[in-house]
Amino acid sequence: MSFRKPDLKNPFKNLYDPGIWKLLGKVRNYLAERDIESYIVGGFIRDVLLGRRTADVDIAVAADALEIASLVADAFGGKYVPLDDINKVARVIFTGNEKSMSGGRQEIDFSMFSGGIEEDLARRDFTIDAMAVDLRQVDKNISDIKIIDPFNGADDLGNGVIRAVSDEVFTSDAVRLLRAVRLGAELGFRVESDTEELIRRDSHLLSGVAGERVREEMLRLLAVPGAGRILGYLDELFLLTVIFPELANSKGVEQPKEHYWDVFEHSIATVIAVEFILGQGTWEYAGEEALAAVPWSPVLNEHFDREVSSGSSRKVLLKLAALLHDVCKPETRAIDTNGRMRFLGHAVEGAALAAKILERMRFSGKEIKMVETEVKHHLRPMQMSQEGMPSDRAIYRYFRDTGETGLDILYLSLADHLATRGPELDLTGWREHTGLVDYVINRHFEKENVITPPKIVDGYDIMKTFGISPGPEIGEILEKVREAQASGEVTTREEALSFIGKLAGSPGSSERENG
Q: N or C: which end of the chain has fewer CB within 10 A?
């Protein structure tokens, strides 16, 4: 891949939003009046040189950054947010609603530096982020701006390279180990070979990074198309099993003959397959014919793009569930009396372990519950029917148990299928699987009664009509009525009461789900 060489004679000609420049002019005047030395640094310069949209600016000041940020917020109607009291870092958020501002939401992070600006740049992570512009230049014509670039970051931008500023980059802040890979993935850059060796050398340091910082980097990385293959690259750099030590045991663990890869390789492949079926990547073992069989629509596209929590979407969390869906296979592996390899209970145990992993990484409760449910029920779609299409009763039970993740799990099951067969995929079996998924999705959208039958009787009706005392038995009867509604056996209140009357002898009995 070739990259455009930044135009250092006119570096800011690609500035996306002139409103930011106007805002910086106001801040420049405010700081100049107080004789405070200040520089625009870091990612803002990088993104402007690349012609990327950006609304976030970093300013380094030779003063107390917390105090400066607070004063700037007061002066221009921004919101002051302290980020790091020890290292003196704070943020000012401008919503764009203030009459002194233009454009949408804009953020300025203020940090403190001592000594010269080049000393500050030498403490930064990568050469492409170790550039600066004296804030006093903002009052000049954009075409006259000069960049301070002691580590030739502009050259690395032009060559598409992520290069560490020094050998101590990762020992200073170990989250940079992940950031190097994530930044390369987002920009389409390669990590330079000496920097790769530094990452391998210092990979163990990542275990000491706060869980929420690792979470933020992983979410951004998983959002990049091709994230599945990037996970493999993380493993080559010794990082993946530092982030997820629970995956280490799955390396080399053999699977039944229908599986092409071992458990670890299969887990990575499942993430790649998720991206393929969601239209975000390629699958080298199957092409358009296999993809064409996957049910898809604008509604489903919107479903997977929907934000779950700040920084995460359904699509991203599905990739995470794909990575962890077999995390407990090594612990549950056994050979039965017929010599068959089994992994009994691996989905249930894996769900509990996945929840612990995400709790360690400070995911939100909603994110944890979604991934946990997806891992727990990833085998369910193919268990709904042993022959033909599943009954409405089976579909009802499936969505009852999987809740809002039901659609997501259907696609996890498809990705699991591809990552099981690999290059040995049988298209006939694949079409049967996609056909089942298509049928369940259609029933979900076409017949809401299958998922949430309307209430036609309640607990009071049961107690009054049949003389049953309050207790768990009432809930069990109501659940059986809902199942009967889903299957079409019961449609009216009278039919429901008749149905309950037949259950009166054994209201706690249960029927096995088909499959």
A: N
Delimit the domains of the chain by residue range.
1-159, 160-243, 248-449, 453-503
Query: CATH assignment of 1-159, given 3.30.460.10, 3.90.1150.10, 3.90.550.10, 3.20.20.80?
Result: 3.30.460.10
41 by Cβ neighbours in 10 Å (0-12 / 13-18 / 19+) ranks as buried
Q: Which among 500, 493, 498 is positioned nearest to 479, based on CA atoms?
A: 500
Strand partners, 38: 61
- The partner residues of 132 in beta bridges, in order of sequence, read 41, 148
* Burial label, 160 (beta-carbon count in 10 A; 0-12, 13-18, 19+): middle
Phi, psi of 71 (to 5 degrees): -65, -40
Residue where the block lists tokens 């809930």: 475
Cα separation, 283 vs 16, whole angstroms: 35
CB 361 within 8 A of CB 211: yes
- pLDDT at position 18 is 67
Nearest partner of 227 among 169, 184, 257, judged by Cα: 184
Domain covering 160-243, topology: Hydrophobic Seed Protein (1.10.110)
Which tens digits make up the pLDDT trace of 35-63?
Answer: 999 999 988 899 888 888 776 799 999 99
Q: Quick one: which of 137, 105, 153, 174 has its CA closest to 25?
A: 137
CA 129, CA 58: separation in Å to the nearest integer? 11
**506 pLDDT tier (thresholds 50, 70, 90):** very low
Q: What is the pLDDT of residues 462-496, one digit of tens each?
A: 777 777 777 777 777 877 877 777 777 777 877 77
Taking only the tens place, the pLDDT of each residue in 61-101 is 999 999 999 999 999 999 999 988 888 899 999 886 443 33
Alpha carbon distance 8, 45 (integer Å) = 11
Helix (H, G, I), strand (E, B) or coil at 109: strand
Instruction: State the pairing for strand pair 334-335/341-342.
Output: antiparallel
